[in-house]
Structures are given as structure tokens and as C-alpha cells.
Amino acid sequence: MISNSSKYAIKALLYLATHSSIDNKIMVKDIAKPINVPKAYIAKLLQQLVRENLISSARGPKGGFYLDEDNLNKTVINIISVIDGEDNLNSCMLSLNECNENKPCPLHYVLSASRNKIIKTLNNKTINELALEVKLGKAFLPL
Amino acid sequence: MISNSSKYAIKALLYLATHSSIDNKIMVKDIAKPINVPKAYIAKLLQQLVRENLISSARGPKGGFYLDEDNLNKTVINIISVIDGEDNLNSCMLSLNECNENKPCPLHYVLSASRNKIIKTLNNKTINELALEVKLGKAFLPL
DNA sequence: TATATAATATGATAAAAATCATATTTAAGA
DNA sequence: TCTTAAATATGATTTTTATCATATTATATA
């Protein structure tokens, strides 16, 4: 439903949102440790996220990863879409392709409301907003 | 979060709930086709489900799979637990082990309510109740 | 402009999940 | 009680996901 890779990517963005800035770029190795993901693995994911404009980077000395204004306004769904592809979250819980709101499978039927709410939330909440919850002391890292 | 195998198992139980009885047992091959799962794969899962008392079976001629009264009262969570193990659904969306209601990660924080509702539903709804939705015309197979 | 530092591209390996294949056991019915 | 029809047990294979390794490219700064 949501892959390990997506989870790692979300963690990385949350970490960058709360710790980096254009003047304070963070290297792979300094991201991997605190978010608890293998360095070589997160490195690959970060590269992919850069290509898809979800995060920013600079090479060479003083280089590293950070989030610019645009990056901060990405949503969780944006991340999952890039890493896992579009459809995973849109499909019903049993991955039935003939299942939809009009003709729902039994599980879909009983879960529809909650499920829609989750998707809506993931669609609306930006990384920036999530990071704000942390600054307000409502939510917590470590990741 | 919820494996393919679990999805297949849920589909199988829903199919049996709506089509089988102790007097009308259904063979592997007649389950595999309508629920759209490879025969050899579902066979293995069905065997596991029998061992864990989630479904019933009989060998030999006139044999096959069916649900007894006890089986019909199993919940979706029961199925997922048997196939995927206990923890998968209880963990937070990012699989953080230090994340909980009191000290939630940002994602957990914004999804908590919907997520709890889903888990509660999966915990309470029995296979029998789900099948009833179908009989009442509120929900639909095919699977 | 040489050096060192950092991301990038590419691909190999390992682990897990999904799928397939088959010999064995059980039981119904002729 | 023999034959046949079914599940069961076991394990092999394939595919996908996760992980690791490294040579290449870009850039700050001495």
C-alpha cells in the first residue's frame, strides 16, 4: 500500500524541513543516521527526489540537500506518487479494479469514509505544514 | 501495510461466505477463478487458513472449503494477523517504533483519528457482516 | 587551477514476497 | 476394498523490493 521507500522518503523530507535551509545544506550521511535509514539506500532515494523536484541539492564542498520554498509545499501524496507510482493509494483496499464508490466491495463499503478522509489529508497537508506541527510541539521527531 | 496474501485471503473468505456452506463445499479451482488469484497460490493460503481455524475444509470426493459458524464470526483483523502477523497494522504509517498517540510523528498526528476508525472497523466487522452487506445489495462482489 | 568534497549515475547483490509444481494423505462411493 | 477426487505438505522458482558499492561529475576554496 505504501512502500518502505516511500516511508523513507517522507522521513527524509520531514527531516530536511525541520533541519535544513539553503544556507544549511545537509549531507547524505547526516540525513541517514537521524532518520534511521541505510546510507546507500537513502542516497539513491534522495537522488530520485531531486530529479522529481521534491527536494533540492548542491554538489561539492558545502553541498548537500535542502528544501526550497517550492519543495516545502509538496504534499505527502506527491512523495508517494513519485516513489510508488500514482495508483497505489487510489485503489481500493483489496486492490480490486472493478471496485469503486458506486459499486464498492464489502470492505470498501465499510471503510470508504475513513479512507477518503485519509487520502484528502495526504493530498492537502504540505511538508511545511507537517513540520509546523513539530515546531508547535504537537508532533514529534525522531524518525 | 497489508500484503497481497492478506488481500487474497480476505477475498477467499468473502467468496466462501457468500457461496459456500457445509453442504456446498467449494474446491480450490472453483475459488481461484472467481476471486482472480492464481490457483496454486490461493491453495497454499487456504491451507494456512484452515490450520488457523479461519476456514473449514474436507478432503476427498465432495470435499472442498467452506465456512462454519465459528469461521463466519472471524474479523478482517483476524485474517490479516494470521497472514501478515500482528504488528503491521498497529504500527504508525511510517513504521516508526517510537511513535505513539502520546508522542506522535507529524503524519501520525494528522491521521490518527481516521486511522483509529479504520482499525476499529476492521476489528469489529465480521466476515458474516460483510457478506450481509452484499446480500442487502449495499456492497458488491466480484472479487 | 589544483584539491578535496559532495552529489550523481549505474549496476550488483541480498532478502522477501509471490508464484508454481508435485508427491502424499484422506475419504467418498462404486 | 478399489478407484478416484479432493485437500495437505513441502519445497523450488520467479519476481519484486530493499540494500550495497563505486566510478564519475560538479563546485567551493586555498
Automatic annotation (TrEMBL), chains A, B:
One of its GO terms (molecular function) is DNA-binding transcription factor activity. PROSITE patterns: HTH_RRF2_2. GO terms for cellular component: cytosol. InterPro entries: Tscrpt_reg_Rrf2, WH-like_DNA-bd_sf, WH_DNA-bd_sf. It comes from the Bacteria. SUPFAM superfamilies: Winged helix' DNA-binding domain. Coiled coil: none annotated. This is Transcriptional regulator, BadM/Rrf2 family. Pfam families: Rrf2 (PF02082). The lineage of its organism: Bacteria, Pseudomonadati, Bacteroidota, Flavobacteriia, Flavobacteriales.
